[in-house]
């Protein structure tokens, strides 16, 4: 546990328990935010160092495996079967009706705009190709603001973007706060049940999430000009009664969709000889997260305004870097 003086930028605390997350916390909201912000900065610095050391190690090794073999269109995500991304292999599972219903609902929400009918969306980040919107909502005093983000990414496909968001073996490389990700059940190659534990960032309590994740190819209602559409939908479930790993985590309840479209230059199709310069992936990311426990509303909103743009930039840059020397995967 880092010293309190480090975590709170010089704030002197005699009893840190009085300042921990909760409705009786005596820590002012601005100092709560400062503490979490400092903790997140330290986590990100540690991750950047790990990435740098990993890159240096890779560059210093001469390996016979350094030449990347050509991949089949479907082989990288365990989906060499034509049924991958259709849900066909998960339909006999007890969760399937919920998975199918939530995916279709979230796809509908992702396709809706943010300016119609005065529906309360407010822009909170506008950074180049990234635009992020929020609707301020609270349930029992807890912030559960729906968020929606749009991004346009060059050089990757919709499937590639969803592949790295869905597959658990990559998650620790782009999710900075992840401590542990356990597959509770592999329902099918395109549908998993996860218990995901996040690092504690003082004074907030440590959190985890139990959710199913489903990756799907969308074949109907494609936007004009879209060569294909893939989605990943994550949704909390009580299907499994799995407790937190340390018995102390506050459980997050989440619903997330990442919907991605591949766009190609006019006149080109997926069967043509393409380079990565021909690829544009349009991303819509929607989330509703209930933190599961009390925390200052103003601090939570300040944190997500800072962290969500950084997450989307970090994740899309990671996918670009991972795919730049690999065959295109549709």
TrEMBL record:
Pfam families: START. It is found in: Cytoplasm. Residues 117-324 form the START domain. Residues 62-84 are annotated as: Disordered. GO terms for molecular function: lipid binding. The keyword Transferase does not apply. SUPFAM superfamilies: Bet v1-like. One of its GO terms (cellular component) is cytoplasm. GO terms for biological process: ER to Golgi ceramide transport. Keywords: Coiled coil, Cytoplasm, Lipid transport, Transport. PANTHER family: CERAMIDE TRANSFER PROTEIN, PHOSPHATIDYLCHOLINE TRANSFER PROTEIN. This is START domain-containing protein.
């Amino acid at each position: 546990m880092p010293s309190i003086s480090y975590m709170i930028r010089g704030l002197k605390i005699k009893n840190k328990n009085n300042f921990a997350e909760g409705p009786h916390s005596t820590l002012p909201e601005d100092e709560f935010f400062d503490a979490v912000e400092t903790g997140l900065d330290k986590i990100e610095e540690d991750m950047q160092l790990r990435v740098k050391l990993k890159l240096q190690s890779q560059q210093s090794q001469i390996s016979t495996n350094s030449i990347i073999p050509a991949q089949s269109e479907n082989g990288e995500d365990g989906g060499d079967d034509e049924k991958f991304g259709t849900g066909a292999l998960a339909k006999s599972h007890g969760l399937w009706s919920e998975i199918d219903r939530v995916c279709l609902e979230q796809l509908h929400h992702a396709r809706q705009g943010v300016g119609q009918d005065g529906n309360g969306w407010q822009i909170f980040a506008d950074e180049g190709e990234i635009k992020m919107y929020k609707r301020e909502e609270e349930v029992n005093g807890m912030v559960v603001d729906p968020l929606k983000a749009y991004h346009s990414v060059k050089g990757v496909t919709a499937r590639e973007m969803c592949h790295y968001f869905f597959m658990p073996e990559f998650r620790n490389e782009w999710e900075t706060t992840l401590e542990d990700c356990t597959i509770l059940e592999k329902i099918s190659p395109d549908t998993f049940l996860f218990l995901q534990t996040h690092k504690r960032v003082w004074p907030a309590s440590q959190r985890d999430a139990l959710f199913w994740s489903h990756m799907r190819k969308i074949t109907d209602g494609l936007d004009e000009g879209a060569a294909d559409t893939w989605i990943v939908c994550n949704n909390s479930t009580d299907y499994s009664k799995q407790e937190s790993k340390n018995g102390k985590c506050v459980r997050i309840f989440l619903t997330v969709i990442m919907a991605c479209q591949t766009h190609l230059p006019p006149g080109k199709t997926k069967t043509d000889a393409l380079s990565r310069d021909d690829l544009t992936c349009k991303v819509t990311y929607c989330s509703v997260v209930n933190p599961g426990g009390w925390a200052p509303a103003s601090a939570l909103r300040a944190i997500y305004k800072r962290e969500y743009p950084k997450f989307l930039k970090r994740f899309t840059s990671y996918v670009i870097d991972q795919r730049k020397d690999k065959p295109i995967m549709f």
